[in-house]
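Teaching assistant's notes for section 4

Start the section by putting this record on the projector. Ask students to predict, before seeing the second block, whether Methyltransferase will look compact or extended. Collect guesses on the board.
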Amino acid sequence: MLCFRPKVLKHNMGSKNNPANRRRSPLSIIIVFGLCCFFYLLGTWQKSGFGKGDSIAMDITKKTECEEDFSTLDFHPHHNIPIPDSSKPKSKTFKPCDVKYTDYTPCHEQDRAMRFPRENMVYRERHCPPQEEKLKCLIPAPKGYSTPFPWPKGRDYVHYANVPFKHLTVEKANQHWVEYQGNVFKFPGGGTMFPQGADAYIDELASVIPIADGSVRTALDTGCGVASWGAYLMKRNVLAMSFAPRDNHEAQVQFALERGVPAIIGVLGSIKLPFPSRAFDMAQCSRCLIPWGENDGKYLMEVDRVLRPGEFWILSGPPINWKTYYQTWKRSKEDLRAEQRKIEKLAESLCWEKKYEKGDIAIWRKKVNPKSCKINPANFCKSTDTDNVWYKKMETCVTPYPKVKTVNEVAGGELKKFPARLQAVPPVISKGLVPEVSIESYQEDSKIWKTYVATYKRANRLIGTSRYRNIMDMNAGYGGFAAAIESNKLWVMNVVPTIAPNTLALVFERGLIGIYHDWCEGFSTYPRTYDLIHGNGLFSLYENKCDLEDILLEMDRILRPEGLVILRDEVDVLTKVMKITAGMRWDVKLLDHEEGPFVPKKIFVAYKQYWVGNKGNDTSKAKLED
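Reveal the predicted structure now:
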């Protein structure tokens, strides 16, 4: 409706000719009053519905110009959480598994392993159950389970009830691996090849390898025992990834993780290690008993693949110092001499230079590029995708160096010293080797994760402390979460799913550690080995790939009682996750995204309740308070 305002004329108020000063006649007042009454009665009559004006007014109201525009608008919300309908069936409740599964490792079970050949350690590799054999229950904690000791005390002490296996205390008693003292295990820091302790052993290595200045950050321990080497490297700001098979040395990897040291169940067998090429700054074998010279040298070639140019490999144990130990090892001098010659010849063919041999220790350095050595081109691997390793057969070939222009250039790019390395742009990005990842997107990702981690710490003040020491990021991306939360009080296992973009190389170049994995299968670890599990977009990634229930049950298996789960994902998929976890003894809540409640992504936070297995029944003892 249009509205007009009469124009007000301004006059000189003091003028005697001003009409406003004149007196209005009584007749004009009566006329005005009569007109007002008439229009009032007319309006009342039309309003009553008896006048013709009502139909005209209704037609005008109906035929507005906005009629078509409003008809297309949808005011219904599109990302709200549906309110549960009490008439629908309740969520499935998952029962506790039998107590015999307390230490269940789905892809490394002894019964299944014995069906496979022992040649090349195939039977100790990953052999996962088919879908119909997967457990659909909750793995119980052993009776008396306790939260691990905080770091650094946890490095040296483990609750007996958590890992109730005394086998190593007897078999390795004279090597000081582990001692049983009442209700705890004590780890004095000894090892088969470092009877004076891990610190003294690392000091000797540091006389050759630049461990102290941040040049060496990531390390690989093949056949790690209880991972004392990795445990004592941590105070020198070096992260070691340790692995050992699940064999007659029961629970050695479980001990490592219970101490708060990164480790996985694994073996050098017939398939490639689940790491990218040029991942580690240092690797060692301390009496790991891997036959380096056998199988045409393929095991040492695999170590070469994951070792960065310019970095170091340590061998302590057979055959090094064979003149002293040949009788103890019950082998002939000739046999041991031939074995060492074979290893040295193989190392030379890989472009490694021997830098040190004294007593029980020998150290080689991989050259920074191949310009100063001769490698037979026929020995190079033919595949150009050297990081496609998941369940891929180990090859008897040499992984090619990245191309260089000068004799002193480090193949693959030179890394900054840690901690500057953590936030610096990794060479794989600056050289454009990671598809669709630019310097700008990498830096923006780092900035975003600092904001996200700050949100987590506001929600739970214990995040960033030793309360949550063993942390896993199930979909690590660029490693932004791990970089933002980095502290000497914790470490993060950065998992890059095999169906996600391959970013694990840049994670390692930041000075972080990680692994490839397919979450449709069990992870290579024992139950109750992580304090905090994080996942960004994980369930959207796997929604149509495998059963989300299986992923959540696996998370429950590897999460410690009173552990924490943080997920970021679309609200629709998190609704499905919440329905499943309602039957899993998790206390769950959903938080809004940092940008507000109208963002369709949400934050899922869950605390795993404390409960232990008991023959015949199970008991819920406590809940973790928010």
